[in-house]
Amino acid sequence: MTYVGQSASAAQQPADERATFRDVVAAYVGLTKPRVIELLLLTTVPVMFYAARGVPDLGLVVWTVLGGTFSAGSASVFNCVYDRDIDEQMRRTRRRALPRHIVSPRAALVFGFVLGILSTVILYLGVNPLSALLSVTAIAFYVFGYTMLLKRRTTQNIVWGGIAGCFPTLIGWTAVTGSLSWTPVVLFMVVFFWTPPHTWALALRYREDYANVDVPMLPVVKPAAEVGRQIVIYSWVMVATSLLLWPVADTSLFYPVAAAVLGGVFLVQAHRMWDRTKGTENLAVIQPMQLFHTSNLYLSLLFVAVAIDPLISR
Questions:
Q1: What is the C-alpha to C-alpha distance for residues 241 and 269, in angstroms, rounded to an integer?
Q2: N or C: lower Cβ tally within 10 Å for the chain?
Q3: pTM value?
Q4: Distance between CA 212 and CA 5 in Å, rounded?
Q5: For residue range 182-219, what is the model confidence (pLDDT) as tens digits?
Q6: How far is CA 312 from CA 54, 242, 251, 305, in A?
Q7: Residue 143 CB-half CA count within 13 A
C-alpha cells in the first residue's frame, strides 16, 4: 500500500540538438552529483585532521580529495546510468543529463569507468593501497549493493545501501595512518545512522515521485507518522554514537560539548517533525525539508568539530 496519489509519468524528453559545449560539460559534471561529493569530502578531510592530531600534510590532502572526488563521481555516474529509466519520470531528476539526452548512456558509462580508474590510481600511488581498496569497495557497494540490488526491492534500501557513503571516514583516516582503528569506525557509524533520517526526510518530500516509479522508499509504503517515528529512533542512536567518540578517541571536552549541542538541535527538529506527522499526510504541514536541511548542517558542523578538536587540544 502506498500513501501518495498516483500521477502520470513524465514524458520522455526529446534529445537536445542545440546543446552547446558548455551544456555538455555541465551535463558531465552533473552526472557526478557535485553536492553529494561535497558532503562526502566533508567527512573525509576533518578525519584527516584528527588522524594527524593537527594539520595533515597538504599534498596528502590534495591527493585524497582528488581521488575521493573521482571515486564519488564514478559511483554517481554509474547510478545515473542504471537509474536513467526512473530518472526520466521523477520531477527531482528529470533534468539530469541522461533523461535530457545530452549525454548517451554509453558515453556516461565510459566516463564512470574513467573516473573510477583515475580515482584508484591516484589513491594507490598518491595515498596508499588501503585507501584505494576502500574506495573501490565503496564504489562497488553503491553500484551493486544499493543501486542494483536494494533500491528497487526493499524499504531498507537506504539503511544498508547508505553504507557506501560512510567509507570516506575510513579513507580519510587510512590516508594519514595507513591502518584502521576504532576512531574512524565510530565516525563511520555516525554517518550510517545519520543517513536514514537525512534521506527519509527528502524521500518524504518526493514520495509521489518514488511511488510513481515503484521505488519502495519508506515514506512510500508507510504513513508519515511511522516515518517520523523511525527517524526519531535513528536520530537518537546517531547522537549517542557521536558521543562515543569522546571515550574511544580520547578527545578534549570541546568535541563532546559540540556533539551534544548539535545533537540536541537535531533531536528537537526530528521530534517536531514527528509531531507534525501525527494525524496528517499533508506535506505542507509536515515540512520534511526542514529536517533535511538541518541534517546537512548537523553533519557539516559535527565533522568541523572533529577537525577543530585536535587543533585546540595540542
A1: 18
A2: N
A3: 0.91
A4: 9
A5: 999 999 999 999 999 999 999 999 999 999 999 999 99
A6: 9, 19, 10, 10
A7: 21
